[in-house]
Amino acid sequence: MTHRIVVLGAGYAGLGAAKRAARRLRGTGAQVTLVNAADRFVERIRLHQLATGQKLLDLPLTGLLDGTGVDLVVARVTGLDLPAREVRVDAAPYTLGYDTLVYALGSGADLDTVPGVREHAFSVAAAGEAARLRSQLPGLSSLTVVGGGLTGIETAAELAAARPGLRVELVTGDRIGAGLSERARRHLHSALGRMGVAVREHAVISKVGPDSLQWDDGGELPAEAVVWTAGFRVPGLAAASGLATDESGRILVDRTLRSVSHPEVLGIGDAAQVPDDLSRMSCQTALPMGMHAGVVLADLATGRPPRPVRIRYVWQNISLGRLDGVTQFTRADDSPLGDAVLTGRASARFKEAVSRGTVALMRYSGLPSAARR
Ligand SMILES: Cc1cc2nc3c(=O)[nH]c(=O)nc-3n(C[C@H](O)[C@H](O)[C@H](O)COP(=O)(O)OP(=O)(O)OC[C@H]3O[C@@H](n4cnc5c(N)ncnc54)[C@H](O)[C@@H]3O)c2cc1C
Fold it and tell me: Nearest-5° angle of CA 75, CA 79, CA 80?
């Protein structure tokens, strides 16, 4: 009987998994279906660039899947029926049955933990949200980015570099780039200072109003517009369907990426968490997880024991506009490797090459051109 694989989400994790599984299972009769809400692949790691008006590559999924044998369904996933092994989607064919399911629905901005964020703040976590910020930018004279993690730093720097007249402030509850080495953080501070970005650390925001931010000690700061980057959250679909998740809703998976509660379901990318593992929400985790899931899917479909994954980190790459950056080299567990840091144009060029590499990987079918026809 045909082995039916359904992959939910065509991001860095899901697209890689679907293509690799299809390649490995070519000729076996297995069927791979990829479901995604949009018909395009979104280069999510460049959405801060989109927000400032830069053009991103147009990447139709049909083009990326050409010749792979993967069936594409453009629809939003609305529910999972785990006992029936069915997925519900909001467009034809409305229901998809599976033998193995891959859950790769990624993450979005956390708009609900702090009051007022959903109503008053912008975000750069999804293409539509970044485009909304882009459309409002020309009318703004100042902007406050909340969140001192990598996305907040990149967003503040990109905005300041692209719009020199715009006053940009970066506010964070901790220190900016808290997990980086002192050398990397020194470069962040001096680069942001040169760009005119005002940095405010140790300020925990408890409420966002229409034109202000409130501190947890009751203080208030005027804010013409706010970009919220303080935290990502995953869709509630996995937890609602009965899959075992952590407290944030990420699917708990074992080292073969199979759900600890439902082994016929694989969880990958931002939406999954390997227990006792960092699984940092990042492209750096999603890509290898997706590639490995392709191998596990082929193992499962052909009756082989699935192989365990080992996620290892090498660097954290932060762009500071198009001409500057910080690359912090890390140990395999993502902790900074002392002062092994690249800065300035060399880092910017390195990050650009890595970002292009992710698209090259998404384009790669792994098949010789003759076999693809
Ligand atoms: C501005 C920004 C900059 C970043 N920079 C970096 C960086 O430099 N390096 C790095 O490692 N990481 C970076 N990240 C994080 C990185 O983008 C994510 O970790 C990565 O995209 C996760 O990949 P994924 O495949 O799990 O999810 P995603 O890429 O989010 O893909 C999920 C897919 O699922 C689809 N989907 C979601 N819900 C549904 C539904 N209900 N029905 C159908 N389809 C659905 C989405 O449309 C999307 O196509 C950045 C993120 C942002 C926002």
Answer: 115
